[in-house]
Amino acid sequence: LTDKPHRDDACTFLFAGGITQRKGIKYLLEAWAKVKRPGWTLQLLGPLPKNPGPLSGLLGDVELLGRVGHAEMPSRMAAADVFVFPSLFEGSAVVTYEAIACGLPSVVTPSAGSVVREGVEGFLISPRDVDSLAQRMTTLGESADLRRRMSAAARARAVEFDWPRYHAAVIDALDDSCRTSTETTALAEVR
Known about the structure:
Layout: E1 11-16, H1 25-35, E2 40-45, E3 63-66, H2 73-78, E4 82-85, H3 94-101, E5 106-108, E6 122-124, H4 130-142, H5 144-159, H6 163-190
């Protein structure tokens, strides 16, 4: 991806995933209420529940993108400036890898299972910490230079987690497991 031609005073924050409390959406919307300003946008990419309940009053100042096809995700991410994913629980959310591959500085929780390193490709915040989330969003929103540095670092970090490297790591792990199993069997036979 090439450098984004965005204005330095504009910033698009993107959340992608199910718009549910497990993903920390309430905390994101509360943080957004504290940081929103002219030229800044929060986009929510994902299915909105039929009845958003208590979220209804917080959705007025956000751009609801709804569900998009997987093929459209890279272009949606490339159009954003910052990825925000304050999840309360994940294994290792694929969307966090997609975000860094698209060069998005990220604000995530450790619960997201992201490979983002604090202060390098983005920021790590504690789950449910609205103030820290708002602070980190503000920091990135106000500094186009920081976003550019973290964007370059995110792209470089993503290369460490591409499919060929993943496949090689799985093969290495299986080889190690087979060697250990064979050695254990051989030792048992000697005894």
